[in-house]
Structures are given as structure tokens and as C-alpha cells.
Amino acid sequence: MQFRYRARDKAGQLQQGSLDASDERNAADVLMRRGLVPLSINSVKSQSFSFLNSGFGESLKSAFQQKVSLDELIIFCRQMYSLTQAGIPMLRAIEGLADTTQNKRLRKTLQDVHEQLERGRNLSSAMSHHRGVFPRLVIAIVHVGENTGQLEESFQQLSVYLEKEQDTRKRIKAATRYPSFVLIALVIAMFVLNIFVIPTFASMFSRFNVELPWATRALLGSSEFFVAYWHVLLLAMVGTFFGIRYYIATDDGRLKWDSLKLKIPIIGSILMRSMLGRFARSFSVMIGAGVPLTQALSLVAEAVDNAWMEKRIIEMRRGIERGENLSRVARQSGLFTPLILQMISVGEETGRVDVLLLEVAEYYERETDYDLKTLTARIEPLMIAVVAVMVLILALGIFTPMWDMMSAYQGR
Q1: Where are the membrane-spanning stretches (predicted)?
Q2: Which pLDDT value is given to residue 243?
Q3: With contact defined as beta carbons under 8 Å apart, do 241 and 124 qualify?
Q4: What is the C-alpha R_g of the chain?
Q5: Global pTM?
Q6: CA nearest to 140, candidates 293, 295, 29
Q7: What own/partner pairs with CB < 8 Å and gap ≥ 24 does 201-204 have?
Q8: pLDDT higher than threshold 90 for residue 336
């Protein structure tokens, strides 16, 4: 990303110009290393108003671009760790990975990174031009690794962190797959019964001209509504789905949705532990890599992928900027249990915050793992109860009048 700056040199003379950096903080660091005191730093935005450079054009292009999966990002970090540890020059390493990768988008990205490295830019600055491929957390740790001369350790930390993140995501998806399939099956069954099955019985009951029980009348009324307005129901469901997605895409909607997710019975507590584990592990990686505390909190706030928790972490960062210590702002956030707060306090006193945060992450990951293993067992009774209620209403509504008609026929 390019920035325009205004700064004063040691003689007090005003200096203006532009430079490439990953963010404003990095740009300020570059200027101070040059002996300049920054007055203002502003990102340079493209002035082109062509369709492809417009916001809509960018969204359209990104929709058709091949995505870079987390698995491919993990492989990239592993390969970069092996290549840098072996002492292979960065240009050769990036060029080799660009030639061997199967993902077209990643190949083009690495080719562009290689070109920028040839022009003299550092790796983190080149990667920052492709935030759709490389998350901010990855760019920040690479930047720290470059400045400390420990780039291979940075890629090793990233590969371990991303592997843990991938493992957690897979376990959550596996645990929620069963209830999702059951709910989808129930919705499909409800449509099929009301549109195709119940009308057949309705025509049969109407020929006998007898008083029907309440369950049967309810089923017949529901069926008539579905048959008459099934297209309206489908449009309403599709409209509701896209309306909710649009609302969640807004800042206010995302904040409310992310807060609501954590209050869902059974699932909410699992999501909370999972995100706290993600927070602790990513924060540990950032501190271990030497990222400043306030910058680490800003990056970790994005890594948790939850607007409600992101807001709390940003409040922690503001507390740090006011001069408060980490244990105090962690206690004020209301996110952590007393045991975790005690470990953070001990880590702060001993200077081993990153080590103890790693233990916190492992603690939350163990809790999440146990909850995920028992999730299906806890959801099954609820699902069985819902299916049983549907079957009971169906049986009462269809078989009760049939039994009455059989009894009347036999009595006759």
C-alpha cells in the first residue's frame, strides 16, 4: 500500500513524499528510521473511475476469483519455513513456489510478490498488496520476522497457528453437520407432506362429511395454505435469507448477530470457548514474534472473526494505550474466567505472557474439543423430540379420523 506523508527532518525542514508500507504504523516506523518526524500519513487511493476499478467491479472480480484456502496457506507457510531455514534466497524461494502451486490466484499473487521483491521491496510490503490472500496477522508476523532476522521462525509459528485454526474449524463443521441435515430434512418433509400427501387424505375425508378432530383440521388448514401460497412461501424464505445476509453484512447487523450467536443454547458456549482459544493462541504468537502489545491486540481483534468480541478486544487495546496493564484490561473486558485472568497476571509478572497464553489456548481448545465430542449427544434428544411432535400431530390428524370412519363402518 502506498502512503503520502508530511514530515520534518532533524533541521526542522518540511519534507513531503510517498512510500510503500503495509499500514500507517509501518509507514511511521520507516519515516522515523530515516530520521523524520511524521506530521501526517495518508493512504493513496486510486483516482481511476473505470468500472473494473470501482468498488462494484472489485466485488465482481473477487466473486469470480479462485479462493486461496486455509490448507493452501498452511502449505505455503510450511514451504517458506523449510526454504528459508535451508538458506535459499527469497527470490528463488518465491519463484519456485509460484511455479509449483496449483492454485491460479496464489500463483499470480506469488508472481507479483516476486516482481515487487525484484524492485527492492521487502516481503511483508509485497504481501500487503494482496490482503485477499494473506491475512493481516500473517503480514504482521512476517514483517516482525524480517525486522528481527527470524523470518523462518515466523513462518514456523504461522504454520502451527494456522494448522490449529484449521483443526478447530473442521471440528466445529463436523459437529454441526448432523443438526443442519436434520433441520433441512424437516423443512423438506413439511413441504412434501403439506403439498402432496395431506391433500390426498383431505379429498377422502370430504366425501364422508363427518366432523373432524382439531389435529386434522389444523393439518388440512396448513395444507390448503401451502398449496395456495407455496410460491409466496418460497419467495419469502429466499427474501428473508438474503435480507438477513445483507443486514449481517452491515456493521450494526454483524455486531448484533455475532453477539446473538454466543447466546444460543448449547452452541453458544462452544463458540465462545473456540474464539477465546483463537484469541489466546494468536495473541501468544504475536507477542512471541515481538509485535508491540497494542498492535498485537488490533490484529488479534480481526483474527477472532467476531464483531462483538472484536469490540471488547479493541477496548482492551485502548486501556493499554491509557497506561493500564494487560491483566487489568483483561479483567475489565469480562471475557475471561478467574483462572485465565490469574494466568495472564502471572505471565505479566514473570515476563512469560506468550507462554502462559499458549497454555490458556490449549485449555480452551481442550474444553472445545470435549464439548464438540458431546454436542451430537446433547442435540439428539432435542431433534428426536421435534420429530416426535411432528409425527404425533401427523398421526393424530390422519389416523384418528380414519379409525373413527372404520368404527362407524363396522357399526353400520
Answers
A1: 178-205, 225-248, 382-403
A2: 92
A3: no
A4: 29
A5: 0.63
A6: 295
A7: 201/398
A8: no
Distance CA 18, CA 6 (A): 9
Residue 215 and residue 397 in contact, taking contact as beta carbons nearer than 8 Å = yes
Task: Give the per-residue pLDDT at 209.
Answer: 67
Q: What is the CATH number of domain 66-164?
A: 1.20.81.30
Query: Using CA atoms, how far apart are residues 161 and 78, in angstroms rounded to an integer?
Result: 11
What DSSP line would sit under 322-361, residue for residue? TT--HHHHHHHHT-S-HHHHHHHHHHHHHT-HHHHHHHHH
Q: Does domain 181-411 have CATH number 3.30.540.10?
A: no
pLDDT of residue 239: 93
CB atoms within 10 A of CB 346: 13
Count how many Cα atoms sit within 13 Å of the Cα of residue 39 in the half-sphere of its side chain: 10
Nine cell digits for residue 221: 388448514
pLDDT digits (tens, 9 = 90+) for 370-402: 887 787 777 778 888 888 888 887 777 777 777
Q: Report how far apart, in Å, the C-alpha atoms of 208 and of each of 134, 194, 211, 396 are.
A: 70, 21, 9, 18
